[in-house]
């Protein structure tokens, strides 16, 4: 009987065009290993994070629910106790689940607490707190947090990096458990700041890269919170918006080499495994005049790599424009292992799509949703409270910036998102259709921030009269098997309807 092995590899802050094969401008990003993965599998060109911030993005990826459902509205917040991770779901079914690398879901600081959470193999657990605790001195800890450590003098060896040590553990796991069914996550912090890598990896990037027209557009036409963000970017960068980031791209090239080692290990010890590669979110790098990630839905921040290799099941070297989301990963994993889909999940399995010979022809599927709530709960960086909700449907993207101005882009004709069509009369029908879908999604998923203000936008003339009750529905959370069922407020009896009037 064939073994069922699933390997999920992910990075942090890697947008899709930071892979050479996925860079439409033809820039050489020096990513030979990920380029080869593209050549051997299926790349989704329209894949999206659920929220472009580290913790919430991972919460969506590993629970199959949106951040507004699982409680992780920003960094430094823990998952809701009712939100099960894929590790918990698999381990309860007797499937060995191991997580090696950055976690960022325990509600603590950036590095984590070093404690293996329920559902994962304690022997292989290795978050960033574990890495720091292993370093021999306080000086080495400080060196591990500064790019200068890698750029000055002789730099560092790969053995000093978190990425190398995560890879070492992943190779050990695949060797020791090659005859078992398992689910393995290899979660790198790189290419996230501080961008550590051996010195040679930075050399190709001492010139402008990631060059896009939207780095030099008329920023005065952007929503107010983006303009404020741009002012901060100018203060930090000194006005340099050319996207040249030696540290980020050098680290990006280095972690490609580590991913290559994991892929080789899989070819040796897990030849039949389904391998999925992705990243939590992207990095603006000066596009639209901003830096990093946060309350914006632009492609540089939300469009992430999503590449799948599955020997003899997926055609080699193909790509698809069909929009997909991290919200679909947990359902896909459960489907892969032949396990049922809990009603509480908010995505859908992609397993049938992966092996569909017509996948390259699909340009539109169901809509994809992205949100933003807060960057981090314990500080006011990135504008403080800036709620945003976004829908991508085919070539169209609608973004509702609750506190400022909304945006509508035709991604097919305006890939750099420089021409906001929100008030264009010729786009009224598609804009309103997408707006209705977005409002329905907020209601269906019990978005805790939903309310009439998402509905009453200045350009939505037919929705200016709104009610206090908004959708008017009370929605209990879908209960998992074994959980205590809720009683209805008006009846005192067990709830039979998920969506109901009060």
TrEMBL record:
Q: Which organism is it from?
A: Catonella massiliensis
This protein is called Sulfatase-like hydrolase/transferase
Which Pfam families does this entry report, sorted A to Z? Answer: Sulfatase
Keywords, sorted A to Z: Calcium, Hydrolase, Metal-binding
Q: Which domain of life is it from?
A: Bacteria
Can you tell me which family this protein belongs to?
A: Belongs to the sulfatase family.
- UniProt keyword annotation of Phosphoprotein present: no
Reply yes or no: does the keyword Hydrolase apply.
yes
Where's the Sulfatase N-terminal domain?
Answer: 6-338
């Amino acid at each position: 009987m064939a073994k069922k092995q699933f390997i999920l590899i992910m990075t942090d802050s890697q947008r899709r065009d930071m892979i050479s094969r996925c860079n439409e401008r033809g820039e050489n990003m020096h990513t030979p290993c990920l380029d080869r993965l593209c050549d051997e599998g299926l790349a989704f060109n329209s894949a999206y994070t659920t929220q472009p911030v580290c913790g919430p993005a991972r919460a969506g990826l590993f629970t199959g629910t949106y951040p507004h459902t699982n409680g992780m509205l920003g960094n430094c917040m823990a998952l809701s106790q009712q939100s099960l991770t894929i590790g918990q779901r698999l381990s309860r079914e007797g499937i060995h689940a191991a997580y090696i690398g950055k976690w960022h879901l325990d509600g603590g600081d950036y590095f984590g607490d070093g404690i293996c959470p329920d559902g994962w193999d304690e022997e292989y657990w290795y978050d960033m707190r574990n890495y720091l605790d292993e370093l021999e001195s306080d000086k080495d800890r400080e060196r591990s947090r500064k790019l200068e450590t890698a750029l000055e003098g002789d730099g560092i060896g790969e053995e000093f990096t978190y990425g190398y040590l995560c890879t070492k553990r992943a190779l050990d796991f695949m060797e020791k458990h090659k005859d078992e069914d398992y689910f393995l996550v290899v979660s790198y912090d790189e290419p996230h700041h501080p961008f550590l890598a051996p010195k040679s990896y930075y050399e190709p990037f001492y010139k402008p890269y990631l060059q896009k027209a939207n780095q030099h557009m008329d920023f005065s036409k952007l929503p107010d919170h983006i303009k404020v963000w741009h002012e901060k970017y100018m203060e930090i960068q000194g006005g340099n918006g050319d996207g040249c980031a030696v540290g980020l791209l050098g680290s990006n090239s280095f972690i490609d080499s580590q991913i290559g080692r994991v892929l080789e290990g899989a070819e040796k010890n897990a030849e039949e495994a389904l391998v999925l590669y992705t990243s939590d979110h992207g990095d603006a790098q000066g596009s639209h005049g901003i830096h990093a990630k946060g309350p914006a839905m632009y492609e540089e921040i939300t469009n992430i790599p999503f590449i799948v290799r599955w020997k003899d099941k997926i055609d080699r070297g193909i790509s698809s424009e069909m929009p997909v989301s991290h919200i679909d990963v947990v359902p896909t994993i459960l489907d892969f292992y032949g396990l049922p889909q809990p009603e509480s999940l908010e995505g859908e399995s992609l397993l049938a799509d992966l092996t569909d010979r017509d996948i390259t022809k699909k340009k539109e599927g169901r809509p994809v949703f992205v949100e933003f709530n807060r960057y981090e709960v314990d500080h006011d960086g990135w504008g403080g409270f800036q709620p945003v909700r976004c829908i991508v449907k085919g070539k169209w993207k609608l973004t509702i910036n609750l506190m400022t101005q909304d945006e509508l882009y035709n991604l097919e004709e305006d890939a750099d998102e420089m021409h906001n069509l929100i008030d264009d009369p010729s786009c009224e029908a598609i804009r309103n259709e997408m707006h209705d879908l977005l409002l329905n999604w907020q209601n269906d998923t019990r978005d805790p921030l939903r309310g009439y203000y998402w509905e009453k936008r200045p350009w939505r003339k037919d929705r200016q009269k709104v009610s206090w009750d908004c959708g008017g529905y009370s929605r209990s959370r879908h209960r998992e098997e074994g959980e205590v069922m809720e009683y209805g407020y008006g009846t005192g009896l067990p709830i039979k309807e998920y969506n109901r009037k009060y």
